[in-house]
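Researcher: Going back to the complex we discussed earlier. I've cleaned up the inputs and rechecked each line, so this should be the final set. Can you rerun the prediction on the complete assembly and write out the structure?
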Amino acid sequence: MSVPGAWYLGLAAMLFTIGGVGLLVRRNVLIMFMCVELMLNAVNLTFVTYARMLNDIGGQVVVFFVLVVAAAEVVVGLAIIVSIFRRRADATADDVSLLRG
Amino acid sequence: MDWAVFLVAAAAVLSGALGVILSAHPVHSALSLVLTLFGIAVLFVAQEAHFLAAVQVIVYAGAIVVLFLFVIMLLGVDRSENVATEPLRGQRPIAYLAGIGVIAAVFLLARTTWVSGAESVAGAADAPGGNVEKVASSLFTRYLLAFEMTSVLLVIAVIGAVVLARHSPSGGVHGSEER
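Model: Rerun complete. Updated structure for the full complex:
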């Protein structure tokens, strides 16, 4: 374990930022969804790094729960995207504005 | 050796992440996502989280990315996005600035200390035994209730996906007024 945890945490922060910027910049709902996955993975990496730095197995258990929730989220989110695309073939995030005030 | 593994995996993670947000084609984004997920799995192994690395490869790189690709192909949306249109004026520059601000804030706040707090609350990670045994014993004792709740969550997700994606052949049974 010669690599300090700070490097892992810095990498995770950069990954989280890339995901967040992508979520704000892109228009395609599928790619926005992938950016959410990037952010979740950054948080997972942070948890595992903290589990190592604090010598606590609980961090790894939390990552397990995040994986389960991410799987459920992907299933429901992709079902929503499929049902949106069924109504309008060329939907970007800007076209789904029915609830705009 | 540790540094070599870390640097290669970090390069894979970051280049994959940039590929996800920069490629105009959704399929290329999904394949870049695989690169990032494998890099994360390597970093898990490097930090002794062997069980999570296996789950990462099986669940994320296997199931979730395949699901993404499946939906991309099923919907026929595998065409490029026009990145030039900007419906909300000034959103992109502000998004880039916000990203730079976030990363600067993290490194500014963490320049003295990255972690503090009690150690080994849920069990020591360097206790004797394999990583899978330690995760399992913590999961089935201290976090048993949360573990049972995830099973309920998965059932709800499956039912929700079936209800949302069902294509009612009779037409107009559940929320299909516009078809």
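Model: Worth noting: The radius of gyration of chain B is 22 Å.
Researcher: Good, that matches what I expected from the previous run.
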